[in-house]
Amino acid sequence: MRVAELYQYRRFRxxxxxxxEPGPGEVLARILAVGxxxxxxxxxxxxxxxxxxxxxxxxxxxxxxxxxxxxxxGVTGWQPGDRVALEPAIYCYHCEYCLAGRHNVCANVRxxxxxxxxxxxxxxxxxxxxxxxxxxxxxxPEEATLFEPLAVALHSMKFVAxxxxxxxxxxxxxxxxxxxxxxxxxxGAMRVFAVEPVEARxxxxxxxxxxxxxxxxxxxxxxxxxxxxxxRGVDVAIDCACxxxxxxxxxxxxxxxGRVVITGIPTSVQVSLDYHVIRRKELxxxxxxxxxxxSQTALELLRERRALLGPIVTxxxxxxxxxxxxEMLERYxxxxxxxxxxxx
Length: 344
Fold this sequence. Notes:
Blueprint: E1 2-8, E2 11-16, E3 26-35, H1 38-46, E4 48-49, E5 52-53, E6 63-71, E7 83-86, E8 89-90, H2 96-99, E9 110-111, E10 124-128, E11 132-134, H3 141-144, H4 147-160, E12 167-171, H5 175-186, E13 191-195, H6 199-208, E14 212-214, H7 221-228, E15 234-239, H8 246-253, E16 254-262, H9 275-281, E17 284-287, H10 295-304, H11 306-309, E18 313-318, H12 322-331, E19 338-342
Helix pairs in contact: 4-5, 4-10, 5-6, 7-8
């Protein structure tokens, strides 16, 4: 099978590897499509994510859909040919966090696409049968790759805790930001402001529900949002970018007693926060760690709102063009929103 390996800083190669055999409780799946996440781009462009450096060669990609090829011993409920979404996180199910239902902070989690845990930019993969979810009828494999980032957006809503009539600011209109905006509007947000320097992404933000968008390179988003709210600020500020000043801008636009939710991943190991803004406003600051029991809901929402969410997938490329695709993402070129690779 073909495998796309990030083998050095900013360089991919295709290698040939044997197709693996599923063991007890496992399934062999053929990959149909894999979405590209911002964390994949961090590994490519920066050589790591925060305090987690790349260990070359590594296989990225953790937003996969596939087709069941072979069942390992003891696996029931699936048949070859079944189309599935593939959960990338492998949990232990016995630590105190799993037993408490907080699998996303499992003490022994293995997340496929991290250093030492190959991801899904390849033609075949072995996963535990517990990591399979049926693909809804009528949803293409490429559209269905949105299930993983959409699950993250849905998980973030636990912290957003939206109340009727509230206003929200979202910083960053990449795929996670776009999905967050869509979920906010579907959840009843009165007004959603989107801050994004790339025009094509601001346009996508408007299409999925943003009421007003601001170009952070042309105007001060803090001044604009405070002006649009008569100086009060928003009830919730969500950072889906974590670039430059966005975290502190979230603190600045949140109202007194408001909530700030960090969904993005900062590049640096340490970040500087305007603590006295947090203190004076008595802000609540939340961090989002992937998702937790949200994937099935994400798939159902994708099926029900395909016309709204599907267009976030703007580009599809074969696996052999992975180098070109990542360079396009790096430049925000060609109006790219979500880029999906199709190994077949």
